[in-house]
Amino acid sequence: MPASSPPAAGAKSPLLFSILVAVSTVGPLAMNIFVPSIPGLMREFSATSGTVQLTLTVYLAGIAVSQLFYGPLSDRLGRRPAMLCGLIVYVVASLACAMASSIELLMLARFFQATGGAAGMVLGRAIVRDLHGREASASVLGYITMTWVLVPMFAPALGGFLDEISTWRTSFLVLTGLGTAVLALAWWSLPETNLQAGAGASSRNTANARVLLRQPAFIVYTLTLAFCSAVFFSFIAGAPFIMVEVLGRSPLDYGLWFMLISIGYMTGNFLSGRYSETVGIDRMITIGNSLAIVGTCAMLGFALTGHLAPLTLFAPMLLVTLGNGLTIPGGTAAAISVLPGTIGIAAGVSGFVQTGTGALASQLSGHLQGTAPLAALWIMAASAILAGIVHRFKPPDGSRPPGGR
Question: Is the pTM of this model over 0.90?
Answer without folding.
Answer: no
